[in-house]
Amino acid sequence: MDPKWRNAIVVGIVVIVVVAGLGLYLTRPQSSSKSCGVALKSTNPILIDQAEIPDSLDPAVTFSTPGWAAVQQVYQGLVNYNGSSYTTFSGVLAQNWTVSPGGYSWTFHLRPGVHFSNGDPFNAYVMWYSLYRSLLLVQGPQFILEQNFFSTNFSASNPLTYYSDVNYSNAANATLLNDLNTWNFDTPTSSEIALMGTANQSFQVLNNLTIELNLGYGYLGTSYNYLLASISAPNSYAVDPVWVDQHGGISFGQPNSYMSVNTLGTGQYVLENYNGIAGGGYTLVPNTNYWGAAAAASDPTNPMIQPALNSVEIIFQDQSAVTISDLKTGAVAEASFAYLGPSTVSQLQGNPCIAVQALPTVYGSTSGSWWIYLDQNQFPFTNLSVREAIAHAINYTQIIQQAFGGYASQWVGPVPPSYPYYNPQGLSPYAYNLPLARQEIANSPCANGACKSLDFKYAYINTGTDWSDTAQFLAADLAQINLTITPVAISLDQLYQEQTIDPTTGVCTTLESTNGGPFYMGQEFYTSDYISPDDWTQNDAISYGSANMCMSQFANATVDNLTLAAAASSNATFLNSSYSTMTSIMYNNYTDIWLVVPTSFAVYSTYLHGFLENPMASAEPYSLLFNTQSVS
After folding, report:
1. CATH fold group of domain 33-285+605-631
2. Would you kindly state where each structural domain of the chain is located, as residue ranges?
3. β-bridge partners, 282
4. The CATH fold of domain 363-598
5. DSSP string spanning 592-627?
6. pTM for the predicted model, two decimal places
7. DSSP labels, 1-70
8. How confident is the model at residue 33, as a pLDDT?
9. 448 vs 4: which has the higher pLDDT
10. Span 198-219, pLDDT tens digits
11. Is 121 in a helix, a strand, or coil?
């Protein structure tokens, strides 16, 4: 399985990130705009300060919060989250779907009359092209599709799978790549249609408005209970084959440079004036050729297909002081922050022109749940008593109250709070118990201060005072059991580097001096690409997960097997038992000290209306789409 990079790159108390909440055109309670004496600079377009710049505008490539926020306004997939719900789904390019017994085949019936903003038609052939293109690009989000799907060799009797011979797969990829680059998907030939209709392939065209997604060809090798959540991610969105061909086509394993900064989709907006530098931005203009106007009129309860009401202008502003001023003076109606700590929250709260909305725990869970990893292969963390002593030496209440200003809560992993099958046994979060910690250390190789001189470097992400304060509190806490740590601040990009194997040495970067290491102990977190328990356990519990392999290096065969079995099951009894077992094993192993889930906030003008919040959303303020937003 490919390493998984997070789709949220904003960290701290708040992450203005991805998806959940209410009904169409409803918003959460906010301060009355009548009490605000400062008018907005603009009502159309709606102006937004955004701290981060997209990594790419190609839906098959982008793997960051600002990238998802942009492409979801322009491109569309078969389904998406149902407004504010993160457990139910609405049809977008598909008007309905059916599932076979056992859940291996999902048949999607597409809406007639759908077209791209330039008028090019959308159909099942284009969807087939788009999904296989996403796999062939082999970019960061590829694993979201590849856990269930794989390339095709057009053989019904001996279909290609993730576990096929590499040489055989490479040959099949070369053939498929040529097909994608040369066929006319508006009007394919009868032989091309027959190949797209070949049985026992991941994506099978049944007719021009029906496509079947067949599971079991990816690395899971099974059915999958969270398929709709996974294909709501942008790398399952439709792209126009004609437009792609006109601008470089598809190269195996390589992004299309033109598509990284230009867009063309079926969605509510046309993206204009993209300037991907600090101080730049882009404008989203309502698509005057939007196919969904008639469909939306006949299905007004589906927020995902409603036409856009207003233009939106995104301004890349990474200076939080400027963003705060812009909100207070009405220069912008919405904002995201690279870091929103207690001091920033206090500066914004109480202003009658600004809503500073603390969101339910699921938003914080999705944005990022955090823990401390202990490398179980490095002395003295090889010893269970040492690990348990550390877990009980930490003053969690002090960290939450003093480092986070009370805007955080403890949790028990590996599945985060508010997710399905979170902590089924109701295990209590690790408790600060200094007598117990001292008892455990006395029963370990570190008794009588034997490990005090080792001085472990502790890596933490340098985003703001909450995490630097946490690191200092940890150093003081562990000194009470005669363990010495030296906090070392690293960037988010450096954390990603630490998670990987050094290509020159073949060992984990955490074991080397890179970025100030080695780091046998440090701060780690994960954030969701879509809401499902296995999206977490496949990264923070399974032995080869990107948030585990080079960090705690936790490896347990039972957990590995249950992670994959649970991902494939829809049996509630089995799932409850599986996640209970996984949680209990990790809880009692103490290689991951589950720390905090910071509170997420949405920040916006009290003049803003019509937004739909969702914990999986990337656009401000925690919206999937801007299409229903307005200001008054």
Report:
1. Dipeptide-binding Protein; domain 1 (3.90.76)
2. 33-285+605-631, 363-598
3. 314
4. Dipeptide-binding Protein; domain 3 (3.10.105)
5. EEE--EEPPEEEEETTEE---B-TB--BTTTBS-ST
6. 0.90
7. ------S----SS----SB----TT-------GGG-----S-SSSEEEEESS--S-S-TTT--SHHHHHH
8. 61
9. 448
10. 999 999 999 999 999 999 999 9
11. strand
